[in-house]
Amino acid sequence: MNVPSPLKAYFDHVVRSGETFAVEPEGYRGLLVGKRATVITGRGGLKSSVGEDDFQSPYLKAILRFIGIDPVDIVTVEGTAMPEPTRQRAAACAKHQVDRLFDGDDALPHWIGDFSDEDMRQINALRHGQADAIVKGDAKAYSELCADDIQLLIPSRAIISGRKAFLEAEVGLFRHATFASFRKIPAKIERGGNLAVEVGLQDVVMADGGSNGGVYSARQKYTHVFRLSASGWRFAVLMSSPCE
């Protein structure tokens, strides 16, 4: 998925020295500061789980941030040419992305401890990546957010240890369940060394409108443990339980 030529030509007119960016001794500086952008894209197919075939989103983010617009949110409507239920699931994922923009949940958590802006960005990205993967039913993308020794603790199940077992469990889950929406409301994130613990609530909406309790409960409490590794923050422990 790449950028169409008319849009490239448009940016050639917009990205102008002295108008939208400045050249200074320290380098380039965007002039459109204090603004954010939401980019809505569409594609007939589905991008790969790691997104190596998506050249469009990184390009658009880079251009907009170069001229000072940040943050840049991407909403992708995928699978428009795919058969059902793939198309329905992709549409639900796009709706979830839009809902997340209006929730403003990045500002909700109470951050306790020494978190840099990059730490907070990565942890927020993990939470959002988790929700997107669950709605899309993409077990591989979900597993790639986790540490190798991930521990999964969910109601009525034995402890699931390690990324391989985690991937197998999620593949089995998504084979029998479709999530229409998965929204997290973090309350507090506290850091100690290379670990951070997040607690909050999550709302779960199944595609069939039903709720069978446990992992399918409409309202749940959750605890996440993040670990800082050489490749960045990753999920180390995932635990949830139904609200009473």
Protein model, in words:
This protein has 244 residues and is of the alpha/beta class. It has helices at 5-14, 56-66, 86-103, 117-136, 139-143, 163-176; strands at residues 21-24, 27-30, 37-42, 72-77, 110-112, 146-153, 160-161, 179-192, 195-206, 219-229, 232-242. The protein has a 7-stranded mixed sheet. A two-stranded antiparallel sheet has the order 1-2. Strand 3 (37-42), helix 2 (56-66) and strand 4 form a beta-alpha-beta unit. Helix 3 runs antiparallel to helix 4 (117-136). The chain is globular. The relative contact order is 0.11. The mean pLDDT is 85.
In short:
The protein is α/β, with parallel strands linked by helices and 244 residues long.
| Largest sheet report | 7 strands, mixed
Strand order of the largest sheet: 5-8-9-10-11-6-7
The radius of gyration is: 19 Å
Per the CATH scheme, the topology name of the largest domain is Nuclear Transport Factor 2, Chain: A
Structural class: alpha/beta
Provide mean pLDDT, rounded: 85
Q: At CATH's second level, what is the architecture of the largest domain?
A: Roll
Q: Could you spell the SSE succession in H and E letters?
A: HEEEHEHEHHEEHEEEE
Task: Name a few traits of the molecule.
244 residues; Nuclear Transport Factor 2, Chain: A; alpha/beta; single chain; 2 domains; 32% helix; two-stranded antiparallel ribbon
What's the helix and strand layout?
Elements: H1 5-14, E1 21-24, E2 27-30, E3 37-42, H2 56-66, E4 72-77, H3 86-103, E5 110-112, H4 117-136, H5 139-143, E6 146-153, E7 160-161, H6 163-176, E8 179-192, E9 195-206, E10 219-229, E11 232-242
Parallel strand pairs: 3-4, 5-8, 6-11
Antiparallel strand pairs: 1-2, 6-7, 8-9, 9-10, 10-11
Helix pairs in contact: 3-4
